[in-house]
Write a structure and sequence with these properties.
mainly alpha, flat
């Protein structure tokens, strides 16, 4: 019987797939897989890459919103 990978490993795998799509300029597939990766295993790095890729897709409002969320979460001292 095959062992299931950890959530973190699964998240990393989808992020790697998204990185490949980003390299090949398939931004819509990259965003989809980055979001899937982030749902499985949240990371600030992935959220930043999602926002940057959304800008490449010209989804400026969505990218800006996510950048603001990350900025406030990262620099919140409360």
């Amino acid at each position: 019987m095959l062992k299931k990978g950890s959530r973190r490993q699964n998240g990393i795998t989808y992020k790697l797939l998204a990185d490949i799509y980003l390299f090949w300029k398939q931004y819509d597939l990259a965003v989809y897989n980055y979001k899937l990766s982030n749902q499985i295993y949240e990371s600030i790095e992935t959220k930043i890459v999602i926002a940057e890729t959304q800008f490449l897709l010209k989804e400026y409002e969505e990218g800006e919103k996510l950048h603001q969320i990350v900025f406030h979460a990262f620099f919140s001292y409360e």
